[in-house]
Amino acid sequence: LQQLVNGLSLGSMYALIAVGYTMVYGVLRLINFAHGDIMMVGAYIALLLINFFSPIINHLNQTFFGSDELGKYLVVIF
């Protein structure tokens, strides 16, 4: 049962990344290789917050908004 949950979780994460690539390519007709970097920054922010603080639910919102703000700043900079 645990392997099924792990597989569904990883598969849905891959699906989200693929949908993001598809949407960017569909609009711009250009592959954005920084898309994966932004997702990894969000994952590192989540890992950092989860390791330092224990309640996971409170930090999921902070991770979402933190990676969102970082993405906005990177768009303005580059």
Could you characterize the architecture of this molecule?
With 78 residues, this protein is an all-alpha fold. The protein folds into 2 domains: 1-30; 33-78. The protein is built from 3 helices and no strands. Helix 2 (34-52) runs antiparallel to helix 3 (56-77). The termini are far apart. It is a multi-pass membrane protein.
Rg result: 15 Å
| Count of helical stretches | 3
Structural class designation? mainly alpha
Mean pLDDT: 81
What is the N-to-C succession of helices and strands?
Answer: HHH
The fraction of residues assigned to DSSP E strands is under 5%
Overall shape: it is flat
What's the oligomerization state?
single chain
Proportion in helices:
over 70%
Low-confidence stretches: none
The number of strands is: 0
Major sheet details = none
* Domain tally: 2
Distance between the termini: 44 Å
Descriptive labels:
2 domains; mainly alpha; 78 residues
Question: What order do the helices and strands come in, and which of them pair?
Answer:
Blueprint: H1 2-28, H2 34-52, H3 56-77
Helix pairs in contact: 2-3
Main location: membrane
Pfam family, one: BPD_transp_2
Family: Belongs to the binding-protein-dependent transport system permease family. LivHM subfamily.
What is the gist of this entry?
The chain has three helices and no strands. It has 78 residues and is mainly alpha-helical. It has two domains: 1-30; 33-78.
